[in-house]
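Predicting holo structure, magnesium ion bound.
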Amino acid sequence: MLELKEIRKSYNTAGFIQKALDGVSVAFPKSGFVAVLGPSGSGKTTLLNIIGGLDRADSGEMYLNGTPTSGFSQTEWDAYRNNCIGFVFQSYNLIGHLTVAENVELGMVLSGLSLSKRKKKAKEALEKMGIGEHANKKPGQMSGGQMQRVAIARAIAPDPEIILADEPTGALDSVTSEQIMDILKELSKEKLVIMVTHNGELADRYADRILRFKDGRLVADSAAETEKEAETGFKLKKTSMSFLTALRLSLKNIFTKKLKTSLTAAGASIGIIGISLILALSNGFGMQIDSFQARTLGSFPITVMQTAVAVDPSDLMSAINEGLPRYPDVKTVYPFDRSESNLLHRNVLTDEFVKYVEAADRSIVRGLAYGRSAEINMLYETGGTVKRVSSSDLSVSLLPLEFGKVNSFLNDDYDFMAGDGKSSVAKTDIFLVIDPRNRLDKNIIALFGLDADAETIDPESFIGKEFKLIPNDVWYSDNGGIFSVSPDLNAAYASDAAITLRVAAVVRGKESSRVTAMNEGFLMRSELMEDLIAVNSQSKIVAAQKDANVNVRTGMPFSEGAAGEAMKNRALAALGDDVLPSSVYIYPVNFDAKEQVLAYLDDYNAGKEEADRIVYTDMAATISSLSSNILNGITIVLVVFSSISLVVSSIMIGIITYSSVIERTREIGILRALGARKRDICRVFNAETFITGVFAGLIGIVLSALATIPANAILYKLTELENVAVMNPFDTVILVAVCVLTSVAGGLIPAIIAARKDPVAALRAE
Ligand code: ADP
Ligand code: MG
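Done. Tokens:
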């Protein structure tokens, strides 16, 4: 069934050509014991390697059941070694980190035999060799003869047709040698056993046939095969090692080198720790910024001013100076109207827009504030006399119009020193604001009739004090076209038309709130202001002012044209004919609702002429995009820097894998002899770097998780921010994957080197 014709093989070492086989033709029967004798260097091992498919002849042909093998592909050779050949070596060639049983199973693992079948076959083979009880030992714990029995068990377990034994008794004493010969003799009843030996006497005693070699030639054949057997053709079952098998094999190997693996993984994890901590910090800072913004910027209104910048501010300067060089070399003046620059948009705050904004969904808009320039006419009574409150004594600010709960802005932005936000719900309730140091101007204290020179004042003493808001028709009296403040303040104070204001609480802007910097003075509800404007816009003085070309309070004439028009409008607004506000502030219910509010405003603009559109300013977005851009920038730079350590660890893994390849060269040879493909060898090492990568990734994640504890403690001391470093689970998974990838990538070149190793040379390796 096996026939060689004119096989030649020579080796070229440094220009010297050594003929290892020189035209060998020989045919073998299906079974029988063939001994190959000859002096050292006569080509015996080369012959076995060629028959076994480990090596290829330079010329000549080998036939298997009449099929020529010269057309075999690499995978067919691998399958041939796995299915048809069983190798037995002088030096046993067992894999030290696997148990005896696992060594015996290895070839069947490669051919993809099921676990139960290969366990059964391995057990049978070991029992046949008389060493069934040693199945779970490691090869290192056995004697030479026992190891050779294991090697024979491994060779016969998959039930190959040919057993190739290269000096199997070379390392054994004579008694053990004879036992091994008995075993081979027994096997030769069913299989073809070709055994290389030095020992002519043993060959004479056991072999059916003896081939003598000298200088690569077959010089004597005790029983030349003459009669040819029926040629039945030849079939092979392909081998392949699954990645799972490779993983198991590598895991076993790694377990024998725990320290080395741990150190490698620890080294490789450093890069991951760095990146992971940076991401954790960036993630945490991002969350801190987000929640900070949601808290603080969430209370920022969207602003609509009379003039808004219509373009991206960064383009502004270049756009304004478009086309004009600096310091031109001409003596010319270019007329230029800054106000006509189309970059500045003039918002016309129409009744339509104000109504549109007021109709906004209450679930997204919490309140509105209008910029008002109406003057407030206020009187107070102290010690029996009525006095004016001048705006220089006491500023009056407006609380936003509230769409939702009463006093929600007040409660959010202010701390109460006296009174509270629950009982102060009347429209005419006003609130006295003191400064962040709890100070109040002495003039204001005097207004209340309290002792301004006292060291401290109980805030409760301001509560319940009354002020009167006087409408225009009571405040002003007509003196023939010119209006002046009515001299009878007592009458005005007592008038039915006067609106009584009550100080309901003393408040201070919260430290975290945007109103901290606000002046001390009164806070009045916008709702009250709207009522007042409704009344005052119908007043006599406003009607007179509308008709006059002079300021009806001073008699000063307005100038001609547009400038005069503007002066008149300002005068009317100050008198309370301020129906359209100068600016609008829209308060979203929270940070998240802001997008919807912006979309609502965009809807207003849809389909409108450029000039009729409203351009708004979203201060919060400007601030938050700036801060998140900075954070992202810093994160990217830091991640790139620490990625360098990933490159370093990748190279380190490469070096360590390469040394592992060197160390396991013989194992590579054994696996190849058992039918492993090049790709399978690659897999074994990829599996090893994969495992190392997973370990490294996990170590990295665990260590960085631990490192966030002291990092947070330090950051808390430095910044008073709690839990800054927070690991994102998604990042964690990605990082482990990156670690595995860099690790496998690092080991790829050594793995390929391993796969390309010549199996014959690998088996010879020490
Ligand atoms: P044997 O097993 O009979 O002692 P081998 O088949 O191992 O002999 O070697 C036959 C000849 O080929 C020897 O001269 C040996 O030096 C040479 N040879 C074998 N393998 C190689 C090789 N890989 N490179 C160079 N020469 C080799
Ligand atoms: Mg040899």
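The chain has three domains: 2-240, 254-295+625-764, 376-532.
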